[in-house]
Every structure is written in structure tokens, then in C-alpha cells.
């Protein structure tokens, strides 16, 4: 009886030993990819290329929504960070913020933030775009009235643009040049004086108010005149020279 029990014990022990050997061998033979999947996600490293793509998309979206003036030939280049930078993989949606919509610049810095796990980093990017600006097509003399033939629109890179530069022809045509302007010069608001509302030797309307009546007469300006400036005009009906105040384009009020 005892011999039979010993035989059964040895048989059971041998069976358990074989089972452990098989399990151990199975674990050792598991593919590396399977073992990698058992690693907690929080121990993974953040894919930096994913961040660069999201930053580029964010900046391109802001540039396409820029409304201060039109942009053409837009391009964004994200500057990679050092390879030694190791961040845990973000388990939530990345929060990306920039100030490009506040002030357009050829270089900008973007904030990239993760809440789980908590980390924040900054990525630099170079922005290229072109915008139409008003340039002179011919020499413009000081105090000259800028005509339609003297200016045109041309594309220029945004890194050459300042806030004072003008992007529409009607912002320039009819104004006076405060100084001499060379051809191909980008025109900004500091180069301009307000337009004359009355031009020397051009016809004007003379308005005289008597009580509740308003009397109008044709006249000719004897000098250029700005708004609210007092000038002399000749009344074509009476041929008299009188003083008047410029109150509107080609209109002079005689008090």
C-alpha cells in the first residue's frame, strides 16, 4: 500500500514539474511584441513626430483664418527638438496654443501641453507667406498727388512687412506724398499726407447759408485745400474772390 502511494506521489510530482517546465518555455518563447504590449502605456515615450504634425496643422489653420490682410504661398516649417528630450506619451488630447493670430511673424513659438501625464513644452516654427502691398511704379515727388498710374499691388514676404504698410490701392490713391518715393518702394502710411479735398484751379461748389436758406453757386478754387482748411475761391457768377472753408470734396462753405 505504501509503495503504491509513493509511486503515485512521484508520478504527480513529475507531472507538476513538467507542467512548470512547459509554462516557463512558453513564456520564454513569447514574441517580443506580445511582451511589449504588456508594458503599461504610461511608460511609453511620446511620439515627437506626432507633435510636429499637430503644431504644423495648428499654425496652417491660424494662417488660413488670418483676416487682417490676404496671405498667399503659405508654408510652415517646424524646428525639431533635441533627440535627448524624453516625454511620457500623452494619454489625453494635446493642447496647442500660439499667438500667431495676434501678431503675424516669420518666427513663432507654440505651446504644447498634456494633462495626463502633466507636461508642457515649446516648439519653434518658421512661417513663410506673401501678402499684396502697395508699391510705387514710378518716382513720386514730394507733395505730389498720387495717381492710379503711380502705384500697383505686388506680393512681398511677410518678414518684410511692417504694420504701417498698406495693402489696398484706395488707401494710397488720391493722397499726397509726404516725401519723395522711389520706384518699387513699399508705401506705408507714414509716407502719406491727407488728400486735398479741393484742388487748385478745379471747380468747386460754393455754399452760403442765410437764415434757413442755403444758396449754392459755382466757383473755382484758387489753391489746394484740406478738410476744414480756409482757402480762397472765385465765384463764377459774381467774379468775386471770397474766403471759404473746405467742408467736403470740391465743396466750400462761406460763413
TrEMBL record:
<dbReference type="InterPro" id="IPR039246">
    <property type="entry name" value="Flagellar_FlgA"/>
</dbReference>
<comment type="function">
    <text>Involved in the assembly process of the P-ring formation. It may associate with FlgF on the rod constituting a structure essential for the P-ring assembly or may act as a modulator protein for the P-ring assembly.</text>
</comment>
<dbReference type="InterPro" id="IPR017585">
    <property type="entry name" value="SAF_FlgA"/>
</dbReference>
<dbReference type="Pfam" id="PF13144">
    <property type="entry name" value="ChapFlgA"/>
</dbReference>
<keyword id="KW-0574">Periplasm</keyword>
<comment type="similarity">
    <text>Belongs to the FlgA family.</text>
</comment>
<keyword id="KW-0732">Signal</keyword>
<dbReference type="Pfam" id="PF17656">
    <property type="entry name" value="ChapFlgA_N"/>
</dbReference>
<dbReference type="InterPro" id="IPR041231">
    <property type="entry name" value="FlgA_N"/>
</dbReference>
<dbReference type="GO" id="GO:0044780">
    <property type="term" value="P:bacterial-type flagellum assembly"/>
</dbReference>
<dbReference type="InterPro" id="IPR013974">
    <property type="entry name" value="SAF"/>
</dbReference>
<dbReference type="GO" id="GO:0042597">
    <property type="term" value="C:periplasmic space"/>
</dbReference>
<feature type="domain" description="SAF">
    <location>
        <begin position="131"/>
        <end position="193"/>
    </location>
</feature>
<protein>
    <recommendedName>
        <fullName>Flagella basal body P-ring formation protein FlgA</fullName>
    </recommendedName>
</protein>
Amino acid at each position: 500500500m505504501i509503495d503504491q502511494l509513493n509511486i503515485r506521489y512521484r508520478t504527480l510530482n513529475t507531472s507538476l514539474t513538467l507542467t512548470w517546465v512547459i509554462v516557463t518555455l512558453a513564456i520564454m518563447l513569447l514574441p517580443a511584441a506580445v511582451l511589449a504590449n504588456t508594458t503599461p502605456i504610461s511608460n511609453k515615450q511620446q511620439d515627437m513626430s506626432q507633435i510636429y504634425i499637430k503644431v504644423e496643422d495648428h499654425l496652417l489653420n491660424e494662417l488660413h483664418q488670418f483676416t487682417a490682410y490676404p496671405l498667399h504661398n503659405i508654408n510652415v516649417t517646424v524646428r525639431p527638438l533635441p533627440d535627448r528630450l524624453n516625454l511620457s506619451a500623452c494619454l489625453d488630447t494635446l493642447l496647442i496654443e500660439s499667438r500667431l493670430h495676434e501678431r503675424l511673424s516669420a518666427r513663432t513659438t507654440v505651446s504644447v501641453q498634456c494633462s495626463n501625464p502633466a507636461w508642457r513644452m515649446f516648439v519653434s516654427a518658421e512661417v513663410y507667406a506673401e501678402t499684396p502691398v502697395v508699391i510705387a511704379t514710378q518716382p513720386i515727388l514730394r507733395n505730389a498727388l498720387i495717381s492710379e498710374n503711380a502705384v500697383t499691388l505686388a506680393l512681398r514676404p511677410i518678414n518684410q512687412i511692417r504694420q504701417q504698410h498698406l495693402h489696398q490701392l484706395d488707401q494710397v490713391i488720391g493722397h499726397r506724398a509726404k516725401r519723395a518715393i522711389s520706384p518699387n518702394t513699399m508705401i506705408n502710411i507714414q509716407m502719406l499726407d491727407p488728400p486735398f479735398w479741393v484742388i487748385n484751379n478745379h471747380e468747386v461748389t460754393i455754399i452760403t447759408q442765410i437764415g434757413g436758406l442755403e444758396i449754392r453757386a459755382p466757383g473755382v478754387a484758387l489753391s489746394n485745400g484740406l478738410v476744414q482748411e480756409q482757402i480762397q475761391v472765385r465765384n463764377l457768377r459774381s467774379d468775386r474772390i471770397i474766403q471759404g472753408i473746405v467742408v467736403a470734396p470740391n465743396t466750400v462753405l462761406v460763413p
